[in-house]
Design brief:
By secondary structure, the chain is mainly beta. The chain has one helix at 2-26, and strands at residues 33-35, 46-53, 59-65, 70-82, 90-93, 96-99, 101-110, 113-121, 133-140, 147-158, 164-175, 189-192, 200-209, 224-229, 234-238, 249-258, 264-270, 283-293, 299-307, 313-321, 329-334, 338-351, 367-376, 379-389, 399-405, 411-418, 420-427. Strands 26-25-24-23-22-21-20-19-27 form a nine-stranded antiparallel sheet, with no helix packed on it. Strands 1-11-18-13-16 form a five-stranded antiparallel sheet, with no helix packed on it. A five-stranded antiparallel sheet has the order 2-10-4-8-7. The termini are far apart.
Amino acid sequence: MTNNLNKIFIFLILLGVFLVLSSQAVFADGTETLGTPSIDISTGTGVIASGTGLITQPGTIDIIIPGSVDVKQVLLYWEGQHTSPKGDDTILVNGIEVTGILIGGPTLCFTNVMTSSYRADITNMERLSLKNGRNTFQISGAEFDFANNGAGILVIIDDGTPQKDIQLLDGNDFAYSGFEPTLNTTVPQTFIFAPTTTGRQADLSMFFSSVTGTTSGDGFRPTSIKITTDMGTEVYFNDYLDSNDGQEWDTLKLTVDIPAKATWLTVQALSVNHSNGDNPASFVWTAAALSIPEPAKGRMTGGGSVFTDDNARVTLGFEIHCDLSKPNNLQVNWPDGNKFHMLELTSAICTDDPEINQKPPVAPLDTFMGVGTGRFNGVEGATIYFTFVDKGEPGKSDTAWIQITDKDGNEVQNVSGSMKYGNLQAHK
C-alpha cells in the first residue's frame, strides 16, 4: 500500500511539472522559433532598439527620441536561464515592477538548464513613458536561478514621414551547432511585403542573448546572420554577436538591401564556424523587427500639349499608377503623323516634393518618373522615358519631359517644358 501511495505521489509531482511547463508554452509566441506576437503591433515610420546585459545588475538602457518624433509603442523584452520549471516573469525598470508574458520557452537547452523569454508592453505606463531626448532606464530585479542574460527595449516611432511596413516576430529560439536538431540552429523567419519597381533599403532590428563571448571573458565565438530574398540575393553578416550590450546580450541593427520586385525576405541566425577553428557561439534569438518603405501609392492622369524648341506641338494623354497596377495608358502624338502608344509601364518612381503644392485634390505624390515600352508608328519595341510634375491648379505650371526611342534605340522625340492647353493631375 505504501509503495503504491509513493508511486501515485511521484506521478502527481511529475504531472504537476509537466502542466507547469506545458501551460506556459501554450501561450508562447514562439518556442524554438519566432512567431507573430500575441498583441497588436502599432503602425509607424521606424523602430528604435537598445538593450543591456544583466549578468551584473542593474543594467542601463538608453533610448534617444528625436525632438519631433512621436512614440507609438514601447515593448520590453528579457530572457534568462533557469533550472526550476519556471523562469522569472517580473523585472524592475527604474525601480518599478513590470510583469511580462511568456513568449517562448521554457526550452531545455543543456544539461538541466532551460531558457525562457518574456515581453511586456509598457507604452501606457506613465511613470516609464518616453520623452523626446535621452531616456535612461535602469533594469534590475531579474531573478532567474541560473543566468539573467539581459533585456531590450523596442520602440515604434512616427516621425511624420510616409508610413513604413513594420513587422515584428518574437519568441525564444535557442541554437548551438554542437547539439542535435532542433537545437543546433534557428528556424528561418520570413517577412512578406508588397513589391516595388525599384530597390529599397529596410531596417532590421534583433535581440539576442546568451552569447558568451569576448565581454564574458571566454574569447570570441563566431556567428552568422543569413538573409535571402525571392530575387535570388543572399547576404551573410558574420560575427556581429559578441555580448556587445554587456555580458550576454546583443542588440543587432542591420540595413538590408531589398531588390526591385522582391516580395519576401528570410532571416536565419546561425551558430556556425565559417572561417576558423573557433567554437561557434550558442545563443537565444528573442525578437526581430523589419521596417521597410511601403510601395509608392497614388496615380496620375492628364493631357495637353508641350512644345519643342522649334515650336512643334507634342500632345499627350495618360492614366498611370505608381504601383504599376492597371490600367496604365500613355499616348503621345506629334507632327508628320508620328505617334507612340504605350503597351506596358515597366518602372515607376513617385515622389512628393514639399516645395510643390499640387492640391487639390490631396495626393501622396506630385512627381511621376516612369519608363514604358510600346509601339512607335505601329512598330513594337519602342521605349518611352518621362517625368510628369503636377504643380497645382489650374495646370499652367505643370511640366512634362518625354524621351522616346524606337526599337533600334534611336531617339525619335525629346521634349520638355510647361504644359499648354491641358492639366496634369495627381490622385490618391
